User: Which sequence fits this backbone?
């Protein structure tokens, strides 16, 4: 199973649309996980139209329409892997310990907010993934997103893509 992980798209405030390479990856994926800050409900509609399946949460920049359609924290099991999706996890210092405490029932937590790509494993084995942002790199050198491949109930690969 192939997943695309994205966050902090901020459409149409930071860009008019997602980059074509990301749309290609989305359309080829088995599912898309979006960790919040969509900004426009039209973006959610377009993603749902073009992707096979979409799982997401709302972020701090998402208004009432998105909050009505998306949870603050989403949980989904895909190919035997227990995913959580949340926008904010707090500051980087202490993140692993906080997430171990707050999400003991997950294998992977996908988060956003910082626009900084992140891939670590906590002391208790929770994989933390932040895809960065494909439209607003802030102080990062590139716009980014992640792809994840699942096989036999585990992550077989995680790849950071630059745009």
Assistant:
């Amino acid at each position: 199973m192939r997943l695309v992980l994205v966050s902090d798209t901020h459409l149409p405030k930071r860009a008019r649309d997602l980059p074509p390479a990301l749309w290609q990856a989305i359309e080829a994926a088995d599912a898309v996980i979006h960790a919040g800050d969509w900004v426009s409900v039209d973006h959610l509609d377009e993603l749902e139209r073009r992707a096979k399946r979409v799982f997401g949460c709302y972020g701090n920049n998402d208004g009432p329409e998105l909050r009505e359609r998306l949870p603050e924290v989403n949980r989904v099991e895909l190919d035997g892997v227990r995913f959580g999706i949340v926008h904010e996890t707090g500051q980087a210092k202490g993140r692993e310990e906080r997430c171990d405490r707050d999400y003991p029932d997950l294998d992977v937590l996908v988060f956003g907010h910082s626009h900084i790509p992140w891939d670590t494993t906590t002391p208790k084995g929770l994989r933390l993934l932040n895809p960065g942002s494909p439209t607003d790199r802030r102080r990062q050198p590139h716009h980014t997103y992640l792809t994840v491949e699942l096989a036999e109930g585990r992550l077989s690969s995680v790849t950071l893509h630059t745009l």
In short: The domain at 2-162 is CATH 3.60.21.10 (Purple Acid Phosphatase; chain A, domain 2).
